[in-house]
Amino acid sequence: MTHPIRILIADDHTMVRQGLSQLCNAEADMEVIGQAADGQEACRMTSLVEPDVVVMDINMPVLDGVQATRYITKENPDIGVIILTMYRQDQHVFEAIKAGARAYLLKDADSDELLRAIRTVAGGEALLDSSIALKMMDEFRRLQGDPVGADGITQLTERELDILRLVAQGLENIEIGDQLGLSEKTIRNRLTTIFEKLHVNNRIQAALYALRQGLVSLDEENS
Fold first, then answer.
1. In this structure, are 118 and 48 located in the same domain?
2. N or C: where does the chain have the smaller number of CB atoms within 10 Å of the terminal CB?
3. Is residue 185 exposed (0-12), middle (13-18) or buried (19+ Cβ within 10 Å)?
4. Which residues form the domain of 89?
């Protein structure tokens, strides 16, 4: 990314917005280009300023973080949404991940964690806590039918399966490339093909697909 990471902060507490803005603007590769006090304003401003990343509080008036995330990711899937929450097991976090959020952080996370998450998401990557992965797996088991099913695996080459397994283990593109002897650009291109074949939209959905189909175990994912 040649320009600074363009960030929108969405939180209904003024002091939180100001604090996050100061933190991000102090980084040479980041720029806060807008602030929103509720979910509806976040959606409107996202359309106007076109950020790379939205740091989204999950509990906001008018539209909550889940509804706003669903709208933003539908209108512009390239925008990365990071959910902020007070509670690790918040059911709304689970819903936000399903809606397309790429990462979530606890509000008491340290500043380095937030900055790392912003850079990771801006680079097209995702951060998924194992507790959320388990909850999503449980939810999928309750669903009837599978829009992709095991047939999606048969469409993948052996190298694509290798990449998918490493994605499910939480590795980033550069780490996958190092393991497989491929460039980061090649991994990125291969992932686009994998997403198309599996009819998924992002790394989280691909990783969960791999888990569900038994391509990798949760033990491996957490190792």
1. yes
2. C
3. exposed
4. 5-127
